[in-house]
């Protein structure tokens, strides 16, 4: 057996000499450090601060307040050990009909997380486990995975899987991540090598087609027959095709396939000869009713879409909110495919893992709080303001707390409404508020634009732009925020508004996709019972201004009403348990009898 070496967390090399807010330029004086990409949730020592629950009993003068001039930024200090493996909800009622479920995915939080996909896979798997089901996740064994997040990592199978005329020696490892059994698939070729989950030097499309077949091959080799194989996004879109046109004729008879589409922006465009590398005859799928990319019909050559093939061949297809389902049926080139398959197409809003996202137990917070005792939220806000240099006060005052703090945590991509984020900074400053943006840009032009904004705004009293990602800091910012802003152009579901509400931040969102299913305007009388935030519909600055202006006015002029909204959003049940129940209904509806 080959022993897998344990590795320390990989760090983004951003050692420079500049200020805190922009890791590419101005970092802390006389101190070089690197921004950690992944969350470090298992630490051996902890932040040297108390965790008071009531500000009236808090000696703020003796508190270990952070400063922008600290050698180590406050989100990189040591935190108490936190192992969610032992925190699956034990009081959860078990389902009467239990199933064997295997998720096949390109991402999983926290070990291979790029976006919301990783959070969803982990949250849904944990929820189904807590309901008594047998659940495994199958994941590529990326070279960049931080192996110290994996418990009991063991080589369990060595087998061969087909790719482009060759049988590739492949290892399967078993480990436990966040309480979930995980099968890691590691081919002996170059696939999945590199310092990031995506963007390696190998052909990603071919690598994920290999992975899709390797997962089925492994099931066949060890003789397992799960009830449900749940695939996610285009990366595993080839698996339903391979299952029904190959492995179902071999030995895998029992499984049924569920596909979740988290974002229809990516289609898995594929040449016929590339699909043939998986052992199928790619030319057989270049038809309107199978996998041809409708946009290329009549072109030379025509292309295929793995996502379309996954839709056609899956027993059920889910997208991540009812409104996004309606939007995808009405627009986009895949709408005709979805309409033909509308009887197996469902919209289910994502949940959040309320164990991982829990302000009453969150180890990253200087003070915990809950809906009945929210004083700790004020301390979290002041803690972040002090650490980011957003207040010059050396003690906590009402004047400091009365400044509304807006937070936006996001990937800096066009979908997220970049022009509205930039506009919001100006509007928040004009309104006398403060705003913190945490996120990374994959496009160099976008990165440069936000670097320039950071250079011009980060030295002022109101705006902080942090071009990085930190799991620890995201927890701190949600806890500190009065308002969580989500001005997306389109948003299949969105987790920021759900997490923000869990931490007592009132959402300001654009009405689209899952945002329209989770946030309802305070001034919408017909939906008064559901009202929980401020909503706008346009894509222009004036529309955003109207929502921000109303939110700021409510915060400042109607504190009792604002506090009622905060309590209301904190009481909402956005846990994965409800969402998991809906997925299980779909599993049961398609499972083989």
Shape summary: globular
> Which structural class fits the helix and strand makeup?
alpha/beta
What's the helical proportion of residues?
A: 25-40%
Number of helical stretches of at least 4 residues: 17
Distance between the termini: 39 Å
Q: What Rg, in angstroms, do the CA atoms define?
A: 24 Å
The percentage of residues in β strands lies in 15-25%
State the major sheet.
9 strands, mixed
Number of strands: 19
Summed over residues and divided by their number, the pLDDT gives a mean of 88
Strand order, main sheet: write it out: 5-6-7-4-3-8-9-12-13
Low-confidence stretches: 1-50
Task: Please describe the topology of this protein.
Layout: E1 11-12, E2 35-36, E3 100-104, H1 116-130, E4 134-140, E5 151-163, E6 166-177, E7 180-187, H2 204-222, E8 228-232, H3 238-250, E9 256-261, E10 269-270, H4 272-276, E11 304-305, H5 306-313, E12 316-319, H6 322-330, H7 335-340, E13 345-347, H8 375-387, H9 398-401, E14 405-409, H10 418-430, E15 434-438, H11 444-457, E16 463-466, H12 471-480, E17 483-486, H13 496-502, E18 506-510, H14 513-518, E19 534-536, H15 541-557, H16 559-571, H17 576-590
Parallel strand pairs: 3-4, 3-8, 4-7, 8-9, 9-12, 12-13, 14-15, 14-17, 15-16, 17-18, 18-19
Antiparallel strand pairs: 1-2, 5-6, 6-7, 10-11
Helix pairs in contact: 1-17, 2-3, 3-5, 8-12, 10-15
């Amino acid at each position: 057996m080959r022993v897998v070496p344990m590795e320390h967390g990989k760090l983004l090399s951003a050692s420079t000499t500049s200020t805190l807010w922009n890791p590419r330029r101005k970092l802390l004086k006389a101190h070089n450090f690197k921004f950690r990409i992944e969350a470090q949730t298992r630490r051996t020592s902890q932040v040297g601060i108390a965790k008071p629950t009531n500000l009236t009993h808090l000696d703020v003068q003796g508190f270990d307040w952070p400063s922008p001039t600290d050698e180590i930024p406050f989100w990189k200090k040591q935190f108490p050990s936190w192992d969610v493996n032992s925190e699956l909800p034990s009081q959860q009622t078990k389902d009467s009909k239990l199933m064997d479920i295997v998720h096949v995915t390109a991402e999983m939080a926290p070990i291979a997380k790029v976006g919301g996909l990783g959070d969803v896979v982990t949250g849904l798997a944990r929820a189904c486990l807590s309901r008594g089901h047998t659940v495994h996740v199958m994941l590529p064994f990326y070279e960049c995975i931080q192996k110290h997040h994996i418990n009991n990592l063991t080589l369990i199978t060595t087998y061969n899987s087909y790719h482009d005329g060759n049988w590739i020696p492949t290892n399967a490892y078993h480990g436990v991540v966040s309480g979930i059994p995980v099968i890691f698939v590691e081919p002996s070729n170059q696939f999945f090598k590199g310092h990031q989950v995506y963007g390696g030097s190998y052909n990603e499309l071919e690598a994920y087609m290999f992975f899709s077949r390797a997962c089925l091959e492994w099931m066949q080799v060890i003789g397992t027959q799960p009830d449900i194989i749940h695939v996610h996004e285009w990366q595993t879109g080839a698996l339903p095709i391979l299952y029904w046109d190959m492995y179902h004729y071999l030995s895998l008879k029992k499984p049924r396939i569920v596909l979740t589409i988290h974002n229809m922006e990516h289609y898995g465009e594929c040449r016929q000869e590339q699909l043939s590398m998986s052992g199928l005859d790619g030319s057989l799928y270049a038809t309107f009713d199978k996998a041809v990319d409708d946009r290329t019909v009549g072109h030379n050559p025509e292309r295929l879409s793995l996502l379309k093939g996954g839709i056609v061949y899956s027993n059920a297809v889910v997208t991540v909110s009812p409104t996004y389902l309606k939007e995808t049926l009405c627009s986009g080139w895949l709408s005709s495919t979805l309409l033909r398959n509308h009887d197996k197409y469902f919209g289910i809003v994502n949940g959040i893992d309320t164990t991982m996202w829990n302000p009453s137990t969150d180890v990253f917070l200087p003070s915990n709080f809950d809906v009945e005792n929210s004083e700790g939220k004020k301390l979290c806000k002041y803690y972040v303001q002090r650490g980011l240099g957003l207040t010059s006060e050396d003690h906590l005052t009402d004047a400091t707390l009365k400044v509304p703090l807006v937070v936006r945590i996001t990937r800096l991509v066009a979908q997220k409404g970049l022009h509205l984020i930039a506009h919001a900074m100006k509007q928040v400053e004009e309104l006398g508020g403060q705003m913190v943006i945490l996120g990374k840009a994959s496009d160099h032009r976008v990165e440069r634009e936000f670097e320039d904004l950071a250079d011009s705004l980060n030295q002022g009293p109101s705006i902080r732009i942090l071009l990085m990602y930190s799991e620890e800091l995201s927890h701190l910012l949600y806890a500190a925020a009065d308002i969580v802003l989500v001005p997306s152009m389109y948003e299949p579901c969105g987790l920021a508004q759900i997490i923000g509400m869990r931490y007592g931040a009132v959402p300001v969102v654009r009405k689209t996709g899952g945002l329209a299913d989770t946030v309802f305007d305070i001034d919408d009388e017909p939906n008064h019972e559901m009202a929980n935030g401020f909503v706008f519909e346009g894509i222009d600055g004036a529309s955003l201004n109207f929502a921000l202006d109303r939110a700021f006015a409510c915060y400042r002029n109607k504190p009792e009403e604002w506090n009622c909204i905060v309590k209301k959003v904190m009481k909402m049940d956005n846990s994965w348990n409800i969402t998991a129940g809906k997925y299980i209904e779909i599993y049961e509806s398609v499972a083989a009898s």
